[in-house]
Amino acid sequence: NDGKGQTYLSAKNNLNLTALSVGFDEKMGEGNHYRNERKDDVEISRIKGGGDVRLAAKNIYSQGAELESEAKLTALAENDLVLNGAKVSHDFEEFHKTKSGSLAKVTKTRFDKQQSETQRGSQVSGKEIVLAAGNEVKGKGLQAIAENDLLIQAGGNVDIAADTNHFRNIHKETKKTSGVFTSGGGITFGSKSEKHHLESEGWTQSDARSTLGSMKGNIQIQAGKQANVMGTDLITPRTNRIDIEGAGVKVEAGKDIINTNERHEYQQSGLTLAVSTPVTDMAQAAYKSVKRSEQAANPKLKALYGMKAAEEVAMAAQNVGKVAETLEALRSGEMQGTGTTSNPSVKISVSYGNQKQTQSSESQSISHQKSTLSTGTLNVKARDEKLTFEGVDANAKEMALSGKQGIDVKGVKDEVHQRTNNQSVGGSVGVFVGMNGNSYGFGLEGSVKTAKGKSNSDSERWQNIRLQADKLITNSEEGGLSLDAANVKAKRWEADLQNLNLTSRQDTEKYESKQVSAGASGSIAYGSGGGASVNAAYNNAKVDYAQVKEQTGIHIGEEGMDAVIHNHTQLNGAIIESEAAQEKNRFKTGSLGHTDIENRSEIKTESAGISAGSGGINPMQALSSALSLLGNSHESERSLTKSAISENIRIDTKTPEKLTALSRDTKQANQQVNQQDLSKVQERQEMAQVIGEISNNAISIAT
């Protein structure tokens, strides 16, 4: 209706403002190459009037509808008024398989799948908006913006919340090589494969929030029963007001949950022909050390890898003459089968081996986006039950909070959890020809190795609630005010409460890792006996951190406070402070209790490695093992987050003896401990390992 008259739409029973499903379903290719895509979009209902727009029915249901009036917009339901979103979904799937190569045949596959469900919320706009129902008013992802006043009224519950979007992504990739290929300095006749699987899934509300706004007027929410607001922004000018009232009232944050997992697998088996010399072996090792030195950010670790590379270059140079002598004897045909194969200058080997390596990780993140209330005057009242703020930022000139059974104000805890595992096993057996100078010999050799590790990390981060006002009034007939991970800042605070409870929360970080490895190798040379060696290593790390980052507190400005707590006040690592003169600060409580919170930062690392040959451990090898233990450390730090009330606040209590142990220094109440850096822990363990390798190299150079 483009005119100025009234637009009136009514139904005897239900008025359904539904969305029409539109979209496409496209399929391309098949077999080894295909791409499928489907999108289910919506064509929403729209009602627009140049004058008043009025909707009336027993029940009104909206799926992402747009309701617009250039005057007053009224939606009146005898029973329920439901303003939800319309779902838009998208599915995408793609697969490719390719084959290539002749001597080495390579088969690759790649699979991608993406799924998403996005909610398109209902939109309501007008100079004035009235949303009313005899029973319930519900809205998810609702955008309701009025030029003047916005009223939401229900005989039962009012539920305004963020909607929830969903996504799921899968990526798979495989590569298999069979035939002849290079591997580790040799040529392998066999097969190798790798598999990768990455998957993520999330439920998000941060991108589907509700908004209730007024450009020039007020916002009012009235519920006969419960008034619930979640993941929503309520905004008016500073000259206007927001009123929320119900038998019980809860305003809370929205939440995002994202899960990820990935798996990687590598496998190789086959017959390998390899030619090696001490010069090429050390040159390859030096190249790896130089590359790691360039990558390392820690200057000490960078220097250690530089030392290791220098030793490996020196060891390569030590053996150049021996290798040249052997190659010359081989060229001139002067080789003699003496059976001497100890530390050959040139070695040719044929071996059959099999190795497998797997890595996996899982993670979950839970994050919150606080609801916000911004206005001039904020009045929130729970007539019969509790008033609860959980994950809210509120800002007003004057703020009045009232709950008959109490007022609970609590922050929200973001969490990240991660689990990783790795495992590898491998072995080989074969024959070799070893050459030194003009002698050569034959032998059998074999090796086996295994490694296993895991790491777990869990972190918690608190987002404190923030309530800020020029004047704050908190009242409860039967309950008290509980501030849990919350900060209140006001120029003036007036309170009439049964109890007052303030609690600070700690951010925490826990990390634990364990890595063990072991290996054994042996050889039997024709005519000269044999030898064997074993090695083992382990690395452990634990980090335990807990610290109050932001202390719960009531911070009052120059106008002071008048707070009457009829029963008990309890401070748990929290503070109450004021900038006003003492005569302006009245704080009366029946009793007062307080506790401190102990913060901690602990780190424990253990790192060791040992190796032994058939001749036992000589003194220099023992020195090498001892040096590798330098990665062991245990550091611990403690501090206190103290409860405190500033000295300029007069405390009138029936238990004055409890005040003697109460700190009056609010500025130094929260002492910090240093948070350990996990990357530095890992660098320290790596440094210990490199020190052990450097000492082993030094033994080789010296002997």
UniProtKB/TrEMBL annotation:
One of its GO terms (molecular function) is catalytic activity. It holds the Pfam family Fil_haemagg_2. Residues 335-354 have a biased composition (Polar residues). InterPro entries: Hemagglutinin_rpt. Residues 355-372 have a biased composition (Low complexity). Residues 334-378 are annotated as: Disordered. This is Hemagglutinin repeat-containing protein. It comes from Rodentibacter pneumotropicus.
